[in-house]
Design goal:
Oligomer: heterodimer
Largest sheet of chain B: 6 strands, mixed
Shape of chain B: elongated
Order of helices and strands of chain B: HHHHHHEEEEEEEEEEEEE
Largest interface: A-B, 77 and 95 residues
Number of strands of chain A: 1
Distance between the termini of chain A: 78 Å
Structural class of chain B: alpha+beta
Shape of chain A: globular
Helix content of chain B: 10-25%
Chain lengths: ~210, ~375
């Protein structure tokens, strides 16, 4: 049997313009509110907007594509299941990244899979030692010029778990200090100090060893 | 090392980073902390270096697969929400009956409790218990359009041609291989693919029955009293004369989508026809890296036929390739004028619906002379 195609809507799709990440917070809050109400399609748009950010955050934390894909999938499936419980739709992004943060943390904790790199300090080790900041004349520009991606990634891998968490949430996910504190379940002041120790450690890790060319 | 109070430095660093994130320059913020600038500068540089790392991005194939899984889950959750109030009522009734029995008060209520929320078939209550609304287990899951094992390609139209090569013109033969479609991680099972960002289509109202047969939104029930097929279908009109169209396809079972590819009124043989799954939440198929879910080639009469998987999804149909004399790129059109644009979302859309239970639907794809490109070049 051969039938006919039924044209329901002859309007043409409008080109998508602009960067989704640049969407106004109000627009995102509206989308999130629609998703909270269970409106079809709203969560799909949020997914399109936030997949890259969540994946980037997770990938930075696990440094493995396959694992990052698995965990990111869990994050979005979990978010979809619980989006109806979101009390503040305007904070959808930080809520989503909190789920991602917890998912990564649970992965390492539950599976006990995370190997401790030989050069990796346990939590609090760096804090106990206190920051030892370089005071050479390099300054901001000089430090910025000699960094490359591999060096930076290697330097972050040598941070403690807590320091990695705060670096990932603050500088990879782009959460504010307050949002990071909420995601980590700590006070803002605690995270402020943790950020300081993390960045100071990162700074040290980025310094070439003494005697290096 | 300069003398410092770590808490002060932490606060200063936090302030500097927040202002830089808001758009201030490092030099500006450091100027406000002259005594700490030597300490702050390298830390700010270190933090900035992390923010400037090349971002890891998900593969297009992964993006599409996860979108499909989210669509399936959202459809399932929507079905559960529809059934939840009824389930709650039955659950409450069961609790009341249990309480009465425990109190020793033998009260005949005329309703037999068969576990929480599971009424006897034939009850006069026309609402379904929550347990009845589950994903149909025997409903085949629409294959994922792209799999991890298949590396994403940038020349989508070329890969589409390769995909179609060597196949006959039957729809079933146009299915991608199982290996190519196998999801890699934790696929949801059971539900057919369902798109949620669908245009407003006249789909049947979800009907819940107290039988054990589960239903999904938009699916007609298999009750003998169900309305005849196609009652919600609008009257047919002419197909869009564009080379590509977005189709919202609803199919109870795998169905056939066929038609002819024409250049003007002349049939085009050996032209590849592909169907592309529009990613969940997206308006269109992305131009780069898109691979057809299904593809086939036209026969000597320009005819093609594709087997559309069951479920609901938003598809885009495209034709490309050539017959040796006329060749056509797979391009995205923006309207009846068939203007080719680079923007991947400049999609020519003539939405059409294939109602549930369809056998064969046809759609002609008509190229214009202006669409042709040099062959072999």
């Amino acid at each position: 049997m051969t039938g006919h195609v039924h044209i329901l809507d002859s309007t043409w799709a409008q080109p998508v313009t602009g960067d989704p990440a640049a969407s106004a917070q109000a627009v995102e809050a509206g989308l999130a509110a629609r998703a909270v109400r269970g409106e079809a399609g709203a969560f799909g748009q949020l997914y399109q907007q936030h997949l890259d950010g969540v994946y980037r955050f997770v990938h930075f934390r696990v440094r493995d594509e396959a694992l990052a894909e698995d965990l990111t999938q869990d994050v979005f499936l979990s978010a979809l299941r619980h989006v109806g419980e979101l009390k503040a739709p305007e904070r959808f992004r930080s809520w989503l990244l909190t789920i991602a943060h917890n998912r990564v943390a649970n992965h390492w904790r539950d599976a006990a899979l995370r190997p401790l790199p030989a050069n990796r300090l346990p939590d609090n080790a760096a804090e106990a030692a206190g920051p030892t900041l370089a005071t050479d004349e390099g300054g901001y520009e000089a430090v910025a010029l000699r960094l490359d991606a591999a060096t930076v990634l290697s330097a972050t891998e040598r941070l403690t778990e807590l320091q990695q968490q705060v670096v990932a949430l603050r500088f990879v996910a782009g959460l504010s200090l307050a949002e990071t504190a909420q995601a980590m379940g700590r006070s803002v002041n605690a995270v402020k100090n943790l950020q300081h120790h993390a960045v100071a450690s990162l700074r040290r890790n980025l310094d070439p060893p003494a005697g290096a060319p | 090392m300069s003398p410092m109070n770590p808490p002060d430095l932490a606060a200063a660093l936090a302030d500097c980073l927040a202002r830089i994130e808001a758009g201030a320059s490092p030099a500006t913020v450091l100027a406000d902390y002259p005594s700490l600038a030597a300490d702050l500068a390298p830390m700010i540089a270190a933090a900035t270096a992390v923010t400037q790392l090349q971002p890891a991005l998900p593969r297009p194939a992964y993006r599409a697969r996860l979108a499909g899984e989210l669509a399936e889950l959202e459809a399932r959750l929507a079905a559960e929400r529809v059934a939840a109030p009824a389930g709650s009522r039955f659950g409450s009734a069961a609790l009341i009956v249990a309480a009465l029995v425990l109190l020793g008060g033998v009260v005949v209520v005329g309703t037999r409790s068969q576990g929480a929320g599971r009424p006897t078939a034939g009850t006069t209550n026309d609402a379904a218990p929550a347990s009845a609304v589950e994903v149909r287990a025997d409903r085949p899951t629409a294959p994922s359009p792209i799999a991890r094992q298949r590396p994403p390609t940038t020349g989508a139209h070329r890969s589409g041609l390769a995909l179609a090569a060597g196949r006959d013109h039957g729809g079933a033969a146009a299915r991608p291989t199982a290996a190519a479609l196998r999801p890699r991680a934790k696929p949801l099972t059971g539900a057919g693919r369902a798109a949620l960002a669908l245009p407003a289509l006249p789909s049947p109202t979800p009907t819940l029955t107290p039988s054990a047969e589960p239903t999904l939104p938009g699916e007609p029930t298999e009750s003998p009293s169900a309305a005849p097929r196609h009652t919600s279908t609008p009257p047919p009109v002419s197909p869009s004369p564009t080379a590509e169209s977005t189709a919202t396809v609803t199919a109870m079972a795998d169905g056939q989508l066929g038609g002819r590819v024409l250049l003007g009124n002349s049939p085009l043989a050996s032209v590849t026809v592909g169907i592309f799954l529009i990613p969940y939440g997206a308006d269109c198929v992305p131009a780069a890296g898109a691979e057809p879910l299904l593809a086939t080639q036209t026969d000597a009469s320009g005819a093609f036929q594709l087997t559309v998987p069951s479920g609901e999804a938003r598809y885009q149909l495209a034709a490309w390739g050539g017959d040796g004399r006329h060749c056509f790129p797979r391009r995205w059109h923006t309207g009846p004028s068939n203007l080719a644009l680079a923007n991947p979302c400049d999609v020519a859309v003539g939405r059409f619906s294939v109602p549930p239970g369809f056998d064969v639907r046809s759609m002609d794809i008509r190229f214009a002379d202006s669409d042709t490109t040099p062959c072999g070049g």
